[in-house]
């Protein structure tokens, strides 16, 4: 939707693929296949019919560009997609058994949750790397004295390990929330036209539970077509994760100022240079993370703002969530990945820290810094 | 800070008091007294000294207007407040033992958490009322047919109880998150100048744990002066609660349109009238809730935006959180209280619902609506 | 609405008064008196009746706390206020001639515009001070070499005057927009129940024009009850002004870091100290401005989010604007006032600048810095 | 950056192209060519050298996918792009004359402004269509009675033309601001490493003025690398335009409710259907516009939030603006285009309006509705 050259935001091609058109279509077809299979299990169609539908879903030849135009015209993907499926199936009886009891929002919401699940896995991978790197850093620097700075002024001594422990604790906290919100949010949607699971002989809830299992999502006893708190909770948790990362980036960018020069992003050929100043070593990793953090709060606010959706299924609100949540996933992943690299290779100049601390003339008492780090890391280990 | 006449937002005087100047000062003095008591327990001062400090805190005569001017000048409350305390104590030795090892942000953060705890209690009270009223409504209307509406158009039949169950489920979900975020957030802050708990002979963490117990907050092994994810999580949870309430208000305002006329806010003399149209019955409760929901996302975004705070204690970021979080508490409480009243007295016109449903000519099959309501309510009961 | 001790935000008592309850009531009564006078001019009531109404408005004894409760109950101020006025007037014929053709939103919107006009005057006063101080600073330092810094790294030489000129240019730009948006926004509202100016014998527009003149607002040929773009434009312009100020505060806070130490906020006894570190000199002015800038974008977003107001007059949207716009005015005024003081007394250490520049080893070529400053200031003068 | 299938938002392929990777590269090369030409005019290089650079820019073979990876690594596009250009040129002397005196942000900012200019032209085209359609609608319906609705309740009579006039007036207002902000914002950026235009023998400003002319942007006497108010103003104006459009969409969606049924989006085969309910006629145009309006405020807030950029050129702030502004342009264009189609073909059922008005039993006095419409349209014409 815009320029990758300008907007890659540190993310991976892998994450972009999770949210691209092909992925949307893939998950939508998986929804239809799972629906047929679950309905077969409940006797609404035969196992053979379900199998033929599954094959049609697996083999459907689709041009995503054409489909995008059709979906934009229809106002939703499911209408043209199901039409293509029906044409592919040929058999009129079978045509009527596709998408049975489902509405287009069931597909759209479930697709988004499937993408979110895949996106969460990538984020978790980067979180693991980042947390490991931060724990090592905190441990290694637990006793290394440095100048503490408050309200942008020199304050009193800390150890650099305490700063790293705080960074890690911020990521831990945000990571915990993200996992909770994922567990809360990643549900199948299956409600039908108005959330009543009508037209399925009272078997709608059993079908939903079965589908959820097939697709690896959790089951929501009540459809949630107009109940979006968990989407908002997930969005907020992504924004908080980004913010916890940006706290680290903010600190690194401050500590890397030439007059302070205590830590630096790892050197990489061709990274952080200037098109005009050969001596520059710009903190590009911090730039990416801070840029993500500038964008995230407004994205989370957009999702918060559409909570009051109309009646059984709203107009314009849930349709706004998908692209915005996509954006948050991509920004979060890019920020964490960038930060993991930066922390793994962080250059720390303990001698310069000692020098700056001495120059500040605030004594050498680092208080309980080291003890705080040690007990924090020990407690983390015992919980793991 | 502005006009109550225009901004009361459905809240109570009780909630406004929790966040007013007198309350800030009260909690700040409670912090200083608890600090002295905890330090006495750890042998840093005598029990007698702690008692004298506690008395001084309890009896300190303060003019909050003067203090506001002094705090604005100093840039923080603790500096003038501690100065007043010291003057009141007289004894120079004792003067040095006040506020020992604490920094002004320790006071400010702890005060905010104490206010948040009181605010959360009021919100919980209104949540209980609202959830009870919604559960009764859902039960009573479990089988009452109504027209489902999707994308702002007539869709297929539901029961009105299913709509109420969805409202309740949205509130349940948001309430669960709010409770989790409170449990996560309501911590004592005690880190000292740069979060190292220096100057306390290694007893800082024991003192912090003791103080937390005295003040009824949880204990954070690491001070969190520049780690603000839990504040953001709490803010987001308040915004989501408001949004879950506004979903209900949106629906009521749509259903109360004269051409639909299915539900109405309870009648109250002098409420909802027009200054010019005698026939009007404006949904004032919905207005209050929707208005809160218009304001909440931007407030949550503001708190999300200050996560990247600088170094050991930041400049401008945490100082922005307190008034914004205050605003969210007041708006949330007002919205829930208003909604509780509206749902308790909601007028539901089942005959009109039947009429509108018949007119829509979409049949009478409400699918699993009633079963969904019943099983949802049963599951809620079994969890309670 | 919350704690002044924590939330004064650098503003003046004068600005708080402009937006307090008494001011709301004062302007609401001014609206009613102007309406009567304008209607008398158009022959809808006699000059004597208008005069008696004006006297009643001027003399009405009101308890704003009671009125706040009544307004909260009614959902709008005008209903109880007009009822009080009618009781005060006694004469039944005259009672019917009050508030004739007006609706409560006419009062609320006009009151907000009258407050905004007064608030704009205060802001303009601080802008004048700040612009004058910045122009002097830019002129004085036009040729003073300093190190330019980009992407948080040392870059190439500038003059400090060029930085000040950029600060000023940012304020000029934002100030120009603010003035344009005020000129665009500060309109009387007079539309009646649904914006048709009914019940006034076709004289509604003449009455509106007359009232606008009496109240010092501009006249809107069409009532704007559900057309709120100018409110959003005004809100955005306030947020941009705050942001232009915060750019200056950000720079000062970076330049005042102890390792850089090039500029400092003016010293003031008791300001910027630490409750625990005697050596600290915290940039409290920057804190106030940066804090305002953290809050402003979300406030502007809230006002942007309510643009799609329903039908002839909306529910919940315009009611959200007034407290949010109030907040923006107070934050903007506090930020600019704080900054004016900081710039007027800014301590600039040119020797340290020279030292830091030499240490950076990036040569001494300040390019066109001085010429850019001189021509910028000359162009400003010629436009004034 | 995400799924077009889900995120097309009513826009055109034309608008997407304006902001795609190829366009970014095209404009970046145009910047370098214009720079060379302007420098030749000022004698910094020969006309022949400028011509050879222009040819290299025009003929440079580029793989945008590779370039995206290189730019992400370098943290900015200009570094790899200029390297490719230099390789293409071969001649070492000429290599040194490329990008002379420019920094990578000069390229990035100018590219964004060139894209914004093209985007503004597309938006203006849709605005013209929409304004024409609304003016015709207002004129045609100037005297058609309809029920006015306020606070979501039936109020008093209006004419439908008055509603359309208000819609148009909202678009006019927002359109005026958008044009002003474009005129204010669309400037060349040329400041060099730290905004001093160093290394150009004092000819930097003349070169900038010349380049601005070549590229069709306005000239900024001071470079604006860390002064971003005009970007924020432009972003806000786009959000307000979207909001003014969404006000119309909100009204149409309310009026198209089956129980009201006064207006409808134009019928189009395959648009607005339901995947499950054959009778549905969903207001898909309104959905697109309301969805854009849900996303815009947070995007504007993001751009407002980065105003306090650090020093001569910031870290993370301006890098966040480009993708966000891109998003606003695409959403605004899609919303206006969608709305233009909807208004051009709007089905208005005057008989139903009369029926609903009669049913409301609020009389037939439409006040000055028609006169207000006529004078509004006449005033518009006389200004055009």
Keywords:
65% helix, 4% strand, mainly alpha, 384 residues, 15 helices, two-stranded antiparallel sheet, homotetramer
Describe this structure in words.
The structure is a homotetramer of 384-residue chains. Chain A has 384 residues and is mainly alpha-helical. The first copy, chain A, is 65% helix and 4% strand. Chain A is built from 15 helices and four strands. In chain A, the strands form two sheets. The first copy, chain A, has a two-stranded antiparallel sheet with strand order 1-2. A two-stranded antiparallel sheet of chain A has the order 3-4. Chain A starts with a helix and ends with a helix. The mean pLDDT of chain A is 95.
Q: How many separate helices of chain A? A: 15
Report the largest inter-chain contact. Answer: A-B, 87 and 87 residues
Rg over alpha carbons of chain A: 25 Å
The helix/strand order of chain A is: HHHHHHHHEEHHHEHHEHH
Question: How many strands, which pairing sense, and closed or not: the largest β-sheet of chain A?
Answer: 2 strands, antiparallel
| Oligomeric state of the chains present here | homotetramer
């Amino acid at each position: 939707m815009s320029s990758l050259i300008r907007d890659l935001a540190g993310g991976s091609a892998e994450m972009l693929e999770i949210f691209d058109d092909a992925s949307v279509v893939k998950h939508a077809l998986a929804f239809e296949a799972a629906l047929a299979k679950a309905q077969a299990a409940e006797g609404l169609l035969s196992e053979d019919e379900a199998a033929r539908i599954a094959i049609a879903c697996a083999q459907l030849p689709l041009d995503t560009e054409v489909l995008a135009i059709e979906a934009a015209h229809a106002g939703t993907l499911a209408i043209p997609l199901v039409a293509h499926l029906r044409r592919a199936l040929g058999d009129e009886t079978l045509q009527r058994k596709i998408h049975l009891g489902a509405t287009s929002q069931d597909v759209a919401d479930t697709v988004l949750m499937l993408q979110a699940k895949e996106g969460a896995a990538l984020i978790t991978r980067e979180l693991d790397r980042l947390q490991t790197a931060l724990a090592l850093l905190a441990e290694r620097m637990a006793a290394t004295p440095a100048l503490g700075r408050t309200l942008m002024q020199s304050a009193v001594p800390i150890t650099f390990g305490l700063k790293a422990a705080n960074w890690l604790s911020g990521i831990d906290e945000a990571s915990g929330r993200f996992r909770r919100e994922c567990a809360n949010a990643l549900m199948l949607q299956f409600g039908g036209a108005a959330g009543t699971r009508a037209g399925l002989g009272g078997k709608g809830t059993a079908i939903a539970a079965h589908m959820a299992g097939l697709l690896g999502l959790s089951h929501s006893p009540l459809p949630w077509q107009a109940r979006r708190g968990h989407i908002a909770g997930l969005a907020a948790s992504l924004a908080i994760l980004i913010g916890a990362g940006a706290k680290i980036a903010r600190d690194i960018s401050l500590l890397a100022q030439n007059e302070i020069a205590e830590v630096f992003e790892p050197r990489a050929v061709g990274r952080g240079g200037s098109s005009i100043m050969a001596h520059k070593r710009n903190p590009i990793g911090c730039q990416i993370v801070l840029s993500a953090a500038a964008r995230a709060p407004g994205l989370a606010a957009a999702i918060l703002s559409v909570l009051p959706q109309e009646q059984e299924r709203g107009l314009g609100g849930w349709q706004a969530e998908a692209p915005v949540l996509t954006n948050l996933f991509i920004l979060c992943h890019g920020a964490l990945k960038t930060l993991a690299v930066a922390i793994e290779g962080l250059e720390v100049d303990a001698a310069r820290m000692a020098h700056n601390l001495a120059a500040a003339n605030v004594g050498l008492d680092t208080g309980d810094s080291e003890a705080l780090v040690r007990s924090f890391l020990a407690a983390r280990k015992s919980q793991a």
